[in-house]
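Chapter review: from sequence to fold.
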Amino acid sequence: TVGAPPYESYYFGGARIDEFRAGGSHDVAAVMNTEQPDIVALHTGTNDVNSQPGPYGPWSNDHSNPNSNASGKLGALVKYLLEWHNGGNGTALDRVVLSRIIPIQGRESDIASFNREVVKIVLDFRNGAVTGSPEPVYLADHYRRFISNPDVYGNLMSDNLHPNNAGYQEMESVYFETVNEATNEVTSPDPVGDLA
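The C-alpha coordinate string follows.
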Protein backbone atom coordinates (compact mmCIF):
# COMPACT_ATOMS: atom_id res chain seq x y z
CA THR A 1 0.00 0.00 0.00
CA VAL A 2 0.94 3.64 -0.41
CA GLY A 3 0.14 6.47 2.00
CA ALA A 4 -0.24 6.93 5.73
CA PRO A 5 -2.99 5.28 7.78
CA PRO A 6 -5.89 5.47 7.54
CA TYR A 7 -5.58 6.69 3.94
CA GLU A 8 -3.54 3.97 2.29
CA SER A 9 -4.04 3.23 -1.38
CA TYR A 10 -3.44 0.10 -3.36
CA TYR A 11 -2.37 1.56 -6.67
CA PHE A 12 -0.58 0.31 -9.76
CA GLY A 13 -0.17 2.62 -12.74
CA GLY A 14 -1.50 1.16 -15.97
CA ALA A 15 -3.34 -1.69 -14.22
CA ARG A 16 -6.63 -3.03 -15.53
CA ILE A 17 -9.61 -4.25 -13.55
CA ASP A 18 -8.80 -7.95 -14.01
CA GLU A 19 -5.47 -7.52 -12.28
CA PHE A 20 -7.20 -6.80 -8.94
CA ARG A 21 -9.59 -9.74 -9.09
CA ALA A 22 -8.99 -13.23 -7.67
CA GLY A 23 -5.84 -14.67 -9.20
CA GLY A 24 -4.84 -11.38 -10.87
CA SER A 25 -1.32 -9.98 -10.67
CA HIS A 26 -2.53 -7.45 -8.06
CA ASP A 27 -5.23 -9.60 -6.42
CA VAL A 28 -6.70 -7.55 -3.56
CA ALA A 29 -6.87 -10.55 -1.22
CA ALA A 30 -3.50 -10.02 0.45
CA VAL A 31 -4.05 -6.32 1.14
CA MET A 32 -7.66 -6.90 2.23
CA ASN A 33 -6.59 -9.62 4.66
CA THR A 34 -3.63 -7.65 6.02
CA GLU A 35 -5.06 -4.12 6.19
CA GLN A 36 -8.73 -5.03 6.80
CA PRO A 37 -10.14 -1.72 5.53
CA ASP A 38 -13.66 -0.72 6.45
CA ILE A 39 -14.08 1.34 3.26
CA VAL A 40 -12.71 0.61 -0.21
CA ALA A 41 -12.95 3.29 -2.90
CA LEU A 42 -12.46 2.17 -6.49
CA HIS A 43 -11.57 4.40 -9.42
CA THR A 44 -10.70 1.76 -11.98
CA GLY A 45 -11.59 1.08 -15.58
CA THR A 46 -9.73 3.96 -17.21
CA ASN A 47 -6.97 1.70 -18.53
CA ASP A 48 -9.54 -0.86 -19.70
CA VAL A 49 -11.45 1.73 -21.72
CA ASN A 50 -8.27 3.39 -22.98
CA SER A 51 -6.73 0.13 -24.20
CA GLN A 52 -9.62 -1.83 -25.67
CA PRO A 53 -12.69 -1.15 -27.80
CA GLY A 54 -16.24 -1.55 -26.49
CA PRO A 55 -18.82 -2.61 -25.95
CA TYR A 56 -18.57 -1.70 -22.28
CA GLY A 57 -21.96 -3.03 -21.33
CA PRO A 58 -24.16 -4.45 -20.23
CA TRP A 59 -22.28 -5.30 -17.07
CA SER A 60 -24.71 -8.21 -16.54
CA ASN A 61 -27.58 -9.67 -18.53
CA ASP A 62 -29.48 -10.65 -15.38
CA HIS A 63 -28.38 -7.94 -12.87
CA SER A 64 -26.31 -10.53 -11.03
CA ASN A 65 -23.82 -12.53 -13.09
CA PRO A 66 -21.09 -10.35 -14.60
CA ASN A 67 -20.33 -10.38 -18.31
CA SER A 68 -16.75 -10.54 -19.61
CA ASN A 69 -16.59 -6.90 -20.79
CA ALA A 70 -14.88 -4.11 -18.79
CA SER A 71 -17.97 -3.17 -16.79
CA GLY A 72 -18.67 -6.85 -16.09
CA LYS A 73 -15.14 -7.20 -14.74
CA LEU A 74 -15.76 -4.19 -12.50
CA GLY A 75 -18.99 -5.73 -11.20
CA ALA A 76 -17.10 -8.96 -10.52
CA LEU A 77 -14.43 -7.02 -8.61
CA VAL A 78 -17.10 -5.40 -6.41
CA LYS A 79 -18.66 -8.82 -5.81
CA TYR A 80 -15.21 -10.16 -4.87
CA LEU A 81 -14.58 -7.28 -2.46
CA LEU A 82 -17.90 -7.95 -0.74
CA GLU A 83 -16.48 -11.31 0.36
CA TRP A 84 -14.75 -9.20 3.05
CA HIS A 85 -18.14 -7.77 4.04
CA ASN A 86 -20.40 -10.81 3.94
CA GLY A 87 -18.19 -13.25 5.79
CA GLY A 88 -16.64 -15.23 2.93
CA ASN A 89 -13.27 -13.66 3.76
CA GLY A 90 -14.22 -11.76 6.89
CA THR A 91 -16.52 -8.90 7.86
CA ALA A 92 -14.19 -5.92 8.24
CA LEU A 93 -15.37 -4.17 5.06
CA ASP A 94 -18.35 -1.90 5.72
CA ARG A 95 -18.66 -0.03 2.42
CA VAL A 96 -17.51 0.02 -1.18
CA VAL A 97 -17.38 3.33 -3.05
CA LEU A 98 -17.48 2.83 -6.80
CA SER A 99 -16.47 5.70 -9.08
CA ARG A 100 -17.70 6.92 -12.40
CA ILE A 101 -14.32 7.46 -14.02
CA ILE A 102 -12.99 10.77 -15.27
CA PRO A 103 -13.04 11.66 -18.99
CA ILE A 104 -10.48 10.55 -21.56
CA GLN A 105 -10.01 13.08 -24.31
CA GLY A 106 -11.12 11.60 -27.62
CA ARG A 107 -12.92 8.69 -25.90
CA GLU A 108 -15.85 10.64 -24.46
CA SER A 109 -18.57 8.32 -25.80
CA ASP A 110 -16.72 5.23 -24.54
CA ILE A 111 -16.33 6.76 -21.07
CA ALA A 112 -20.02 7.72 -21.03
CA SER A 113 -20.96 4.14 -21.99
CA PHE A 114 -18.73 2.63 -19.29
CA ASN A 115 -19.99 5.09 -16.68
CA ARG A 116 -23.64 4.26 -17.43
CA GLU A 117 -22.79 0.70 -16.50
CA VAL A 118 -21.09 1.84 -13.27
CA VAL A 119 -24.41 3.40 -12.21
CA LYS A 120 -26.22 0.16 -13.06
CA ILE A 121 -23.69 -1.84 -11.02
CA VAL A 122 -24.28 0.40 -7.99
CA LEU A 123 -28.06 0.13 -8.41
CA ASP A 124 -27.98 -3.65 -8.74
CA PHE A 125 -25.85 -4.07 -5.61
CA ARG A 126 -27.86 -1.50 -3.62
CA ASN A 127 -31.16 -3.10 -4.61
CA GLY A 128 -29.98 -6.60 -3.68
CA ALA A 129 -30.15 -8.00 -7.22
CA VAL A 130 -26.56 -9.27 -7.20
CA THR A 131 -26.28 -11.09 -3.85
CA GLY A 132 -29.89 -11.38 -2.74
CA SER A 133 -29.46 -8.66 -0.10
CA PRO A 134 -28.93 -4.90 -0.42
CA GLU A 135 -25.21 -4.16 -0.32
CA PRO A 136 -23.38 -1.04 0.93
CA VAL A 137 -22.11 0.11 -2.47
CA TYR A 138 -22.03 3.87 -3.09
CA LEU A 139 -21.44 6.02 -6.16
CA ALA A 140 -18.68 8.64 -6.32
CA ASP A 141 -19.46 10.69 -9.41
CA HIS A 142 -16.08 12.03 -10.51
CA TYR A 143 -17.26 12.09 -14.10
CA ARG A 144 -20.06 14.57 -13.46
CA ARG A 145 -17.74 16.80 -11.43
CA PHE A 146 -15.17 16.84 -14.23
CA ILE A 147 -17.52 17.38 -17.17
CA SER A 148 -19.30 20.20 -15.33
CA ASN A 149 -16.08 22.19 -15.78
CA PRO A 150 -16.35 24.17 -19.07
CA ASP A 151 -12.67 23.50 -19.87
CA VAL A 152 -12.17 20.12 -18.27
CA TYR A 153 -9.02 19.25 -20.23
CA GLY A 154 -7.44 22.66 -19.68
CA ASN A 155 -8.41 23.07 -16.03
CA LEU A 156 -8.45 19.57 -14.53
CA MET A 157 -6.30 17.29 -16.68
CA SER A 158 -2.53 17.04 -17.08
CA ASP A 159 -2.94 15.11 -20.36
CA ASN A 160 -5.73 13.28 -22.18
CA LEU A 161 -5.96 10.66 -19.42
CA HIS A 162 -4.68 11.90 -16.04
CA PRO A 163 -5.85 14.64 -13.69
CA ASN A 164 -3.62 17.53 -12.70
CA ASN A 165 -3.44 18.79 -9.10
CA ALA A 166 -6.71 20.70 -9.47
CA GLY A 167 -8.31 17.53 -10.84
CA TYR A 168 -7.04 15.49 -7.91
CA GLN A 169 -8.49 18.10 -5.55
CA GLU A 170 -11.87 17.70 -7.28
CA MET A 171 -11.62 13.92 -6.91
CA GLU A 172 -10.73 14.34 -3.23
CA SER A 173 -13.81 16.49 -2.76
CA VAL A 174 -16.08 13.95 -4.46
CA TYR A 175 -14.68 11.12 -2.34
CA PHE A 176 -15.06 13.19 0.83
CA GLU A 177 -18.71 13.95 0.05
CA THR A 178 -19.48 10.34 -0.89
CA VAL A 179 -17.75 8.77 2.11
CA ASN A 180 -19.31 11.34 4.43
CA GLU A 181 -22.76 10.48 3.08
CA ALA A 182 -22.09 6.74 3.23
CA THR A 183 -20.77 6.78 6.80
CA ASN A 184 -23.55 9.01 8.09
CA GLU A 185 -26.38 7.13 6.43
CA VAL A 186 -28.98 5.99 8.91
CA THR A 187 -31.56 4.54 6.56
CA SER A 188 -31.17 3.25 3.05
CA PRO A 189 -31.33 6.07 0.52
CA ASP A 190 -33.45 6.10 -2.58
CA PRO A 191 -31.64 4.23 -5.35
CA VAL A 192 -29.27 6.21 -7.52
CA GLY A 193 -30.79 7.08 -10.89
CA ASP A 194 -29.04 6.75 -14.23
CA LEU A 195 -26.84 9.86 -14.28
CA ALA A 196 -25.74 9.53 -17.91
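Two observations follow directly from the output. The radius of gyration is 16 Å. Residues 108-126 form the longest helix (19 residues).
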